[in-house]
Amino acid sequence: MIKAGHVxxxxxxxxxxAETCSGxxxxxxxxxxxxxxxxxxxxxxxxxxxxxxxxKAAACPANGLKPASTTCRQVAGPCDxxxxxxxKAAACPxxxxxSTKTTCRVAKDKECGLTEAxxxKAAACPxxxxxxxxTKCSKGVCANGVCKGGNPQLDLSVPDANPTDAxxxxxxxxxxxxxxxxxxxxxxxxxxxxxxxPPGDRGCxxxxxxGSASAPLVLLLLLALGSVRRRRG
Length: 233
Known about the structure:
alpha+beta; single chain; 12% strand; 12% helix; 3 helices
């Protein structure tokens, strides 16, 4: 008697099983097959199907392909197209792209931006582009693809919203074209005007004989201011 484990019948196909002696009987065991769903032929491409055993035959089923219209390659960018199986070949068709007439990016700014179209040779949309900087637009000029206001010249025909802010020296009103400060100067020195303190308090330089060197100048200034006041009165 042949010992157990001796192959008494070789497998006759990818779905068949080799039989071995049991060591208890003279006859080879009955022929058996691999379990159903056992893969007997791997897929040879994205559109091919793996074949599995039926559990009832030694041979692997005939080669089958995925149905037509089955997607075998997903899009890789806005300018790419999905590829589908033909139902007649195991390989996925060659990668294809959208035509050059296909818009892949709309301009963000209608005046300064540019609309990009596919090249027909790549899955990615071309780099975002825009009109040259300083191109004139409705608000001013283009800057990095956006219409922005420029620095328009001052229009002197439009009055200033608050013209007194630029010329007034105090909050007091202006009367007859003369501010209160100008009127105070025209009226002559006051007791509280520190700028007209007696020269002796300021350490003036006196000439020989005890007279002040600046006294004639002060007198002339007072006469001039009095004359201005009389003309305005």
